[in-house]
Amino acid sequence: MAQRSEQISLHLNAYLTAHSSPPDAVLRELANETVELFPTEMGLAIAPEQGTLMTLLTQLTGAVSAIEIGTFTGYSSICIARGLADGGHLLCCDISEEWTSVARKYWEKAGLSDRIELRLGPAIDTLRSLPDEEMFDLAFIDADKGGYLGYWREVVPRVRPGGLIMVDNTFSHGRVIDAGNDNPLVIAVRDFNDHAAADDRVDLVMVPIGDGLTLARKRD
To answer: How far is the CA of 32 from the CAs of 14, 28, 42, 107, 197, in angstroms?
Structure first.
């Protein structure tokens, strides 16, 4: 697999993955096909150890209802859906029919098609079309970085107290600490990180797995 936790050495990452539950055959096949089909977009995929963590966190929260903003070829959605409690439902939001056609194939292979719903279109529009009440136990944000603030503003009110929000790529490949980096995507991630850290509706921590994963628990 192409993706790994970036902020540790290759050797330590190899040790980490050797001592973690590995991805199964479906996830390995999906990762390999994604590399073949979309080699220049592999930066959109999560690391295998991050997927394992996300499944565990989903299980630990007892989540039944979840939403994912940004699905790509479906690796993270499989990891979340597998962790949902019986009767669970995952709503996936993406704009690409090409990417998500691969996801659909692997949802079927993983036996998860009955618990995953895909809505194609701008995620911000999908979010705003949803009821305003707290309806999700868990949310995962991993889409266009310029949209992170908007997604956060729409997602937090729709997550129940005690629910979990996960946000990917919050290290921006380590560039967030480079004050001289004025790349718009880096600035967007910095702005999001500052906003989320100051949000008194949540308690959060940034975890150095993958490209930085922010975990936020909505306060009771």
So the answer is: 18, 6, 10, 15, 36
Helix (H) or strand (E) holding 128: helix 123-129
3 sits in the region (left: phi over 0; alpha: psi -120 to 50; else beta) called beta
**How far, in Å, CA of 4 to CA of 17, rounded?**
9
Q: What is the pTM of this model?
A: 0.96
Tens digits of per-residue pLDDT, 45-72? 999 999 999 999 999 999 999 999 999 9
- C-alpha R_g of the chain: 16
Collapsing DSSP states into helix, strand and coil, what is residue 88?
coil
Q: Which residues of 127-145 are buried (b: 16+ CB within 10 A; e: fewer)?
A: beeeeeeeebbbbbbbbbb
DSSP state letter for 76: H
CB count within 10 Å of CB 180 equals 5
pLDDT for residue 3: 77
Residue 104 has, within 13 A of its CA and on its CB side, a CA count of: 12
Distance CA 171, CA 145 (A): 11
What the block records as the tokens of 20 is 């973690």
Cβ neighbors of 217 (< 8 A, separation 6 or more) are: 162, 163, 164, 165, 202, 203, 204
